[in-house]
Amino acid sequence: MTASPTAERPSLRSQRLNQITHAPHARLDALVKAHAPFENQANFARFVVAQYLFQSELVALYTDPELIELVPDLAERCRAEAARLDLADLETDVPAPVAGAVSHPSKAEALGWLFVSEGSKLGAAFLIKRAVGLGLSETFGARHLAEPAGGRAEGWKSFTRTLDALHLSADEEAAAEKGAIDAFVRFTVLLEQAYASAPELA
Ligand code: HEM
Predict the structure, then answer these.
(1) Going by CA atoms, what residue is nearest to atom 6 of ligand 1?
(2) How far is the CA of 122 from the centre of ligand 1 (A)?
(3) Which residue has a Cα nearest atom 14 of ligand 1?
(4) How far is 91 from 31, CA to CA, in rounded Å?
(5) Residue 124 neighbours by CB under 8 Å, 6+ apart
(6) How does pLDDT run across 69-93, given as a tens digit for each residue?
(7) Ligand 1 in contact with 29 (CB < 6 A)?
(8) How far apart are alpha carbons 14 and 36 in whole angstroms?
(9) Options 1.10.275.10, 2.170.150.70, 3.30.70.1230, 1.20.910.10; CATH of 30-197
(10) CB of 68 within 8 A of CB of 110?
């Protein structure tokens, strides 16, 4: 994420979302790193717990027929199952749901959440390289960080192309932005919860 927080408001929706989430992304990036997820497999497993919780909360959005009408390959983009398999690889229990998941967001709000979930696949390119150092891979323990079929860049470009072409009212535009911010807040909550509930820290 390279947008400057002081830059003018960009004309493309995806760039505007990028801009308003710049600071939350930087904070989350620092928080992820503060938990040293690549120090050992146990630390990484807690990160996967957070990823699993986040992804599983978004299944209803990835499989929503109205959203699939807008983004035809949406269901295939979902990583909840990959994260669940990662947990099994890491011999980590599937966590209980955490109160406060997004529920029945408006279409525009849902798009903001999906923007964040899809965008997180870009950072995953860096994260998977570190996971390899723990003996993990796209087929074991770090499946949810795998490069999507067709490539990371292309997957992101096609998502943002679709997002940028949608006509939204001013209210919907604001709702999409709220969804994106809420998604970062939620991931932060889940990350803290995942590390707080680490078996070795209990
Ligand atoms: C739940 C949401 C997200 C999480 C947990 C997350 C996490 C991270 C982390 C930990 C890194 C650092 C990787 C490293 O330095 O080794 C990173 C980098 C990156 N992320 Fe995210 N991210 C999220 C959402 C997004 C979104 C929405 C976008 C784009 C719109 C994005 C784009 C990037 C890019 C391009 C990088 C590469 C380095 C940079 O330019 O800062 N991420 N992400």
Answers:
(1) 120
(2) 6
(3) 126
(4) 24
(5) 144, 145, 146, 152
(6) 999 999 999 999 999 999 999 999 9
(7) yes
(8) 30
(9) 1.20.910.10
(10) no
What are the boundaries of each domain within the chain? Answer: 30-197
Query: 């299944």: which residue's tokens?
Result: 59
If one counts every other C-beta atom within 10 angstroms of the C-beta of residue 182, the result is 17
Tens digit of each residue's pLDDT (9 = 90 or more) over 82-131: 999 999 999 999 999 999 999 999 999 999 999 999 999 999 999 999 99
CB atoms within 10 A of CB 112: 28
| Pair of tokens at residue 126 | 């860096």
Q: Is 20 helix (H, G, I), strand (E, B) or coil?
A: helix
Q: Is 194 in the pocket of ligand 1 (CB under 6 A)?
A: no
User: Is 166's C-beta closer than 6 angstroms to any atom of ligand 1?
Assistant: no
CA–centroid distance, residue 36 to ligand 1 (Å): 16
* Collapsed DSSP state (helix, strand, coil) of residue 18: helix
